[in-house]
Amino acid sequence: MDTQVETLEFEAEARQLLQLMVHSIYSNKDTFLRELISNASDALDKVRLEAFRDKDLDVDTSDLHIDIEVDKAQRTLTVRDNGIGMSRNEVVQLIGTIAKSGTVEFLHKLKDLKGKDAAAAPSSELIGQFGVGFYSTFMVADKVTLVTRRAGENRGVRWESSGAGTYTIEPVDDAPQGTAVTLHLKPEDKEDQLFDYTDEWKIREIVKRYSDFIAWPIRMEVERRDSDGNVTRETETLNSMKALWARPKDSVAEDEYKEFYKHISHDWTDPLEIIRMQAEGTFEYQALLFIPSRAPFDLFMRNRKRGVQLYVKRVFIMDDCEELMPEYLRFVKGVVDAQDLSLNVSREMLQQDRQIQLMRRRLVKKVLSTVKDMMTNNRDRYETFWKEFGRVVKEGLVNDLENRDSILEIASFESTSDPEKPTTLRQYLERMKDGQQHIYYMTGESRAIIESSPHMEAFRAKGFEVLLLTDPVDEVWVEPAGEFDGKRFQSIAKGQVDLDTEEEKKAAEAQRDQQQKDFADLLAWMTNTLETEVKEVRLSSRLTSSAACIVGDAHDISPTLEKMYRAMGQDMPHTKRILELNPTHPLVTSLQKAFDERKDDPGLAETAELIYGMALLAEGGELSDPSRFIRVLSDRLARSL
Ligand code: ADP
User: Fold this and answer.
1) What number does the ligand 1 atom closest to the CA of 84 have?
2) pTM for this predicted structure
């Protein structure tokens, strides 16, 4: 007896995912075959490349293909490839655990959803956010056997599971190189969309629909009846194997593109936009790119995989070819097939290749111009795009100066002009008031915090529109960006504001002079008192109802940015800002009066401190010593009761 059979447990997350599969959360079960074929196709790509790079590897790559075999009597379906195969460790690693961080998060989301509303089945929309690969076999099978041998190794592995908590694994001596996955099919149940997957026509249909473009032959033995009624068996290739990007544009149906997208992206949702490019001449290439319709879970995680794949003359070279797409367009998926590169090309070579750099520039411009077209021709789609990817695209405003203007052109921002709909900068410009010189904005943690901050008061009162920038990346690009179409970006929390018309200015001049005189002593004293916190205390023209606010000098770094730099471990000196007082607010006028009457009252300094603290809190800032603030405030309240 073979005593080498080991029973191992699936990792917790893998178990959960399997549970979902066994309990059939996907209505479309046919897709399991697409997943298996997709894996087999990847395995064939890999073995061809490895054989090419490692001449010592003992593999025969002359007849790489995928076989589909059925056994009607046993009700089994086998998908077999002679690709790279897996070692024992790889089987345990790749099949027994879930390496993809996005998947784990997906499961948490599902759980949250269930917790909140037990009745709500996980929506297909949520589930559609990514493929689940190999595990989808458990939708249609109650037992799955996988036999595999890694290219270059002389012993194989047999893995088997019924999708419950455990699987078995054992060595096998006579496994052919590559992988064979055998499904022991569940009984047919049409109501549950569970078909007879041993049926030739069903298999043909699925392969044609989902996997026609796969570059390797997908073969199956089929029955033929000749004119005399004799039945013969012969092997047929079910797919056309044509690379979509190499076919004339008009000859490819929309659905074919969509299936191809699903194959390369492992996303089960249709893409938002399909981009095709063709360059001829000295450096020939074809590109087929996709903008997904939603952001993957791992968009902001490191180690995220799969962006643009590089092919050379139809041969797969690498996944996630960073050299072809900048970070800020990392959500773009697709294939670039270059005709003039060596199959042996490495990442290092790509980084230095001028042609590649040129290609990348063109790809980037094409993606940006596609978004621009979307904006003009299909506003809803554009809005979806921006909601999903805007945060990432804005990173380009920092990193891709060459395209900064194009990115600003396709960007949208929250704004005071509409509580829900974001605005583009063009729309902002159209709404600008007569004589308005700048594009006003404020950065902050949330719309609510910015909207209620004192800085907004005069802008609101006078009807100036303000952009509300709430993404962390906004802090970084907005200042250096400088301007859009000749109008400067101006933070409402920085510098002096000047919103009055010439007439208003004249009318207010006399009053302002008087206020400056009346408050001069108080301001000087307060600047001195709050010296460690602020660099100046002055009168404000931006407040209507609050007593005070804190502003930066025109070129000061914002407090959030300062915090961000510190968080990244950079040494940052604390930038002192300016405290502005509202000369018409009762708190300020009373302080002024008290100051005139009893300059030496130690209570005055506390009041100054409280005013500063409140201004800080009003903008969502943090007190340097909250317990002291509370002590001073509660003493004060106790006395006034
Ligand atoms: P995904 O394909 O999305 O990565 P799967 O669960 O389908 O997820 O597969 C996990 C991994 O197992 C694959 O990434 C691959 O490394 C490996 N694998 C699956 N099928 C095969 C196969 N037929 N040949 C070689 N490796 C495979």
Assistant:
1) 25
2) 0.75
